């Protein structure tokens, strides 16, 4: 078994609503699986179930062979480092009264990474450089950054704990198109450097295609089609995928940005 992540017949329920229905997927180390589908189809619910932030009503999620919903204690703590979330709006998860440097140092402290304050400060500076931000800006507060810069901070904070998997939940959906391309480029660079695996969630098929090795198309809680990015985009089998593709005005223009 060399899959990093295996999702087997997972369902997520909120009371009577079955938001995710019997979903199965797999992701190898260093690979990107795009998850695409319109708003409300269950992408975030599935992403949260993968990270054991949401219980699975049925089925199981295996990370390196262990069922994530059964992890407790030290093994759960380790999983919280190995699998991280990048949000659409990192601002919502940043404390407005804490400098961004202090926020990253806090993550390092909480996870026992970096023995002294000086080491943590140094590590935060390295992380900032890794994501293309000036380490001098670590003293600044979240409101002093643009949307794209905040997304870089969110990525730096996720990387602080040295994850193997990032669930990126619409990480570029709130950004201007040119900034989207910068963040996509950054995520690809980081994947190349670190061998990260991504579950890359989006509703814009052009962006998801640009990022992904394989794509899973989600509709109404279910995966209706999975294949290589080219297969899914050039020869869509399911009517819903065909509809999604026809909503992409000009894929070549979008990719050239
Ligand atoms: N915490 C929650 N409680 C109740 N319903 C929820 C919750 N989160 C999501 N939902 C519902 O589940 C469905 C799927 O939502 P979501 O997973 O956020 O989809 P997506 O990320 O694709 O937009 C929607 O109908 C949404 O209203
Ligand atoms: Mg969502």
Automatic annotation (TrEMBL):
Residues 5-245 form the ABC transporter domain. PROSITE patterns: ABC_TRANSPORTER_1, ABC_TRANSPORTER_2. InterPro entries: AAA+_ATPase, ABC_transp_ATP-bind, ABC_transporter-like_ATP-bd, ABC_transporter-like_CS, Oligopep_ABC_C, P-loop_NTPase, PhnK. SUPFAM superfamilies: P-loop containing nucleoside triphosphate hydrolases. Keywords: ATP-binding, Nucleotide-binding, Transport. It comes from the Bacteria. The keyword Ribosomal protein does not apply. It holds the Pfam family ABC_tran. One of its GO terms (molecular function) is ATP binding. GO terms for biological process: peptide transport; transmembrane transport. Belongs to the ABC transporter superfamily. This is ATP-binding cassette domain-containing protein. It comes from Tichowtungia aerotolerans.
